[in-house]
Amino acid sequence: MRARCTVFFRSRVVILATAVAVAAVAAARPHRASANTCTSTGTGSWNTVATWSGCGGTVPQAGDDVVIAAAHTVTVDVSTNALASLSVDGTLTIGNNSTARTVTVTGDLTIASGATVQVLTTSNNNHELSLGGNLSNAGTFSGEPDADSEIRITFSNTSVNQTVSGAGTTTFGRVNVAKGSQSLKVVCTANVTVSGEANDFDLGDGTDAGTWEQSAGTLTKAASTVQITNDGGLIVSGSGSFTLSDDNLDVDGILTVNTSGTFAMGDGASSLNATTNAVVTLTAGAVDIFGRFNATAGSTTTITGATIRIDPQATNNLGAGDVVNFAGGANVTMSGGSITIVDPKAANGDNEVQIVSGGGSKSFSGGTIYLGDGTSTTAGSTDAFRVNAGVPIFNLTIRNQGGGTNRFVDLVMNDLDLNGSLVIESGGTLQQNSRDINVAGDWTNSGTFTRTATFDVTFDGTGTQTIAGSSTTGFADWFIVAGATVVVPAANQPTAETNVSNQGTLIQTRTVNAASVAFLDVRNAADSASTYRAVVVDTTGSGDNLGSTTVTVRGNTVSCTTTGAGSPDARRCYSIAPSSEGDAVVTLNAFNAGGPFDERNTIADANLRVYQYTGPSTWTNISSGAGSAGGAFSFNSGDTASGEPIPISGEGIHFLLAATGASPTAVTLAGLSATAGAGRAPLAALGLVVLALTTVGLRRAAGPGAARRHG
Length: 711
Hints:
With 711 residues, the chain is mostly beta strands.
């Protein structure tokens, strides 16, 4: 019985002693029912308990909110726990010696005006800041005071976008965008500078997948190549700007510029390289590339509105490589905006524009490529500007080169095909260099165009095209395709050395006041022969002033009416529209068998007659007599034996040539706005013959169908 009691008593003593020990340990630990707000008490080290108040008697723990109070300097001498937030009103120094430290914040980092987050130059190591929330800086973030000491910041939230904002000074040693997905972004509205060390602003690459978007302020990357891999992205939007000093930008992911700000990179010898997986979208903003723009196979480039300037001569000169190189396998779309190549290369052997056809899709439906910027006179190599466009491009403008040496433009390797217009400014020179040129828009020449014998310039647009400029353009062979309409100036009318092949429509307006005026009389440069003649309107006999008169000629047309290929009319149609009434002798010209094509439509010379459109459903034969084969044909008006003038309606007067007795279908000048066709007349020796000569009274009547005589 005593033994049993003794055992029982000892058991109670052991249990009681254990309970007392547990209670003592619990009393010695801080009570953490919830996270604390730890506030600095003064200047000190992070890992010193006395530095903090509100921490429950210890240093900041995981989940705590931390405040560095004004006028306090706290030095991080250990890697921190994962803080809920960090607010700096004083100074936070990361690193106390050469040992690397890591500060982890799962929430926001806020730096007040006058406050500082820094690393000391004596640290000589790379420290880490892992941030899961937003960074707001109204003070100073000094992440790289020298090349040996830096703070590397990682944006680590893989669920939502993060932001960088504030009017403070922000310098990062290195930026890692570790969002886990290209679709998640760090959106920055602050001015930020990133170190010039290698790999300090690379975007993408596995765990660092994500996109940096600069929507306001300027992101400045000091010299070193920036790499954007296939799961990374850089977007410059809103009013944001981006500057990369003195190095390359290699893009295999996303690059988007859609800003009212600027995008600038390179030093003249640098490259914007769009590689296999790159998606480059240039929508708005000033894009300055000092060096070259190189798009390789598989890449996709879309230009819709940005103002792009590329200069291979800046602080340094570009070495080997074309200035604009769109490889055959690259996908390129340009629907707006502009590309200006400021200077030609300083070295021979490459092209300023190299656009290669191939497996990649290419579409140029808008925008302009400028050669020269109208200001720079920096000398080029003896190659000057070289253009090799293996696909149709849109507008091309040769700027005023200011008298600079070797700044002319040469076409090389491929013909030049423009879906838009060609402009040669005063002081600019385009050398054809044995290449054909096709233009679907306007031709404006106020500079110098140097033709090459036997090579063509073809107008092939579907709308009205205009020839303009203060210089006279000299073509070798000039073609107007079916469906094209070209307005030819009275002043500085082009010349043509060999052939003018008009299968479309030519329009010219001149003043006819008591004079004989030739319309569309195209001659060679020496003015010794005509290569194309259309209409002569002569009012010297009547003394009448017709004023501004427009002549329209459609050449080598299938039909001047609409009766089809079997139509009995010859294949040239005429319209004369004076602004005032009067009498004139009108001479109509067309090609015979000696021209680039025979517009007589198999009609024997002796059977040709002149028909005038005199009203609804009426073409009237105004001819009498016949001419000899291959010669000139004289016709009376046909109205009366005495040859009195024929009254016309208010819409002007229309003529065609047809066989005697053909009675053409009554339709006015079919094809003046016809559907575009393809093809071009074969080259041939050009012979001109006056096929019809008629004395016709041109009178502006009161309205359509109105008729009156005068003698």
